[in-house]
Amino acid sequence: MNSLVMALVAFILYIIAYHTYGKYLARKIFGLREDVVTPAHELEDGVDYVPTRKEIVFGHHFTSIAGLGPIVGPAIAIIWGWLPAILWVVLGSIFMGAVHDFGALVASLRNKGKSIGELTSELVNPRTRTLFFLIIFFALWIVIAVFAMIMGILFNLYPQAVFPVWMEIPIALWLGWMVYKRNANVTVLSIVAIILMYVTVVIGAYWPLKMPSFLGLSSIEIWLIILLVYSFIASTLPVWTLLQPRDYINAHELMIVMALLILGIFVAHPKMVAPAVNHNPVGAPTLWPFLFVVIACGAISGFHSLVSSGTSAKQIDKETDAQFVGYGGMLMEGALATLVIVAVAAGIGIKYVTKDGAVLMGFQAWNTHYSSWLAAAGLGSKLTAFITGSANLIESLKIPYAIAVTIMGVFIVSFAGTTLDTATRIQRYVLGEFFTDIKLPAFANRYAATFIAVLTAGLLAFAQKGGKGALVLWPLFGTVNQLLAGLALLVTTVYLAKKKKPIVFTLIPMVFMVFMTGWAMVKNIIDFQAKHNYLLFSIGLVVFLLEIWMIIEAVLALNKYLKQPKEVETVAEEASE
């Protein structure tokens, strides 16, 4: 199949979905209203609660939910064939992921910007909130430690990205200051900022910077320490100073990368050299249910509910902006995942250079890289497939290959940094809410909570030499993250039931996600036991039991709300819509 046709069909479906299904959810199910006072206005503090233009919130939200997820997931899942990957990305984004993100955002907007975990206290019961807190803390704990390490690895792999990525910080600080303190034109400043960003990219391409070992610490360990310190500073600063403008720049960077890839597809229009379906890849787990765990971001991811309810809900200016930010942000991520599939299923076939210098093309190129699950599963392997395929597409536009690789390297590291920033900030919110609820306010302020978030992640990372301690727990993250998506959909379903709104739109995705990822979790737990990996077996079993417990509690609450008659205020709300 021609990659251009596939990409066009996917993009058209995203556009149609936004203007039909997304609009129906916004108007008829969630009943968004422009005259409602949002938490950003009601609780405005200039630090976390900051009313913001929807375009800027979109940039922050999109880059926060994306990170490396929509890249590494499709880049490994393509081993089962491009057809199941693209079907899950397109249909999952439209009917599950976008509904999940949108629902979590609206539920938080209607509850003072509280996180999805905190909402369970009001919608289900306080006991369930504690269960959800443990699951969320565990997931974010791993994310912070792993992504700090990943950025260190990426800086080693792509030293040409070091200068541009760190120069983005002063550019973002300048942009935030000019917009919020000088009331300057954000459009003009955005153009200037992105030009400055790409000037640093060109400099970085010819001035790679390598971190040396120091005091017995490897370069990755040094980067890890630097990045954790940076995360503490970035996560305690007011959101408008660094987080928003940096994410806004990253969003523009992404748009440029996506535009280059789309133009590359139009010019090169390579054929899909990967098989449509590959039933039995060597060493791979079964397609069902693991496709729905491997491709998370790009289809549906529990981490997104933490972003929607953790940071984005605190910045929405008007309630009606939620469709653009929540539903639209997920569809944009689906579009990115679509381009990743094209890059690793078609672009890689244009030219692939092996370690011994041989140049391969077509199916032979793809098959060499994806010869087995083990060969394709490592981080370097996933990113190599994407960067090679993408650089081939960009090179078709007569852009030098070295520049194309640097553009993609900076793009990947920038998005990994956004994930690290956002995960640290969300962990701070989650810890702050938890300590407030258990009457320990001394640990709830932003400095103490952020310190705990960073310290615990650092301890996990350095539990093993090389800062790779979090990799011990990483095999659990995929299923925990996707079960978190099912739980977030469950909480949103309870919210809709309480408001006497139709629940089928969140109930069906919830049942699908809980079943598929529960199935995957059970298979993983059995595998851990068979391999005598009792650490992962024990933790996986505990997490799985906690989630089952929470599901039971939530289902009981859902049943209670479904049996209750419509409340007077709910009828009044509907009459005013």
Q: What structural class should be given to the helix and strand makeup?
A: mainly alpha
Shape: globular
Instruction: Please trace the helix and strand order, writing H or E for each element.
Output: HHHHHHHHHHHHHHEEHHHHHHHHH
Average residue-wise pLDDT? 90
By DSSP, the count of extended strands is 2
Largest sheet: 2 strands, antiparallel
Strand content: under 5%
Q: What does this protein look like?
A:
This protein is an all-alpha fold. Helices cover 73% and strands 1% of the residues. The chain is built from 23 helices and two strands. It has a two-stranded antiparallel ribbon. A hairpin with a 5-residue loop joins β1 and β2. α3 crosses α14, α11 packs antiparallel against α18 and α20 runs parallel beside α22. The protein is globular, with a radius of gyration of 23 Å. The N and C termini lie far apart (47 Å). The relative contact order is 0.17.
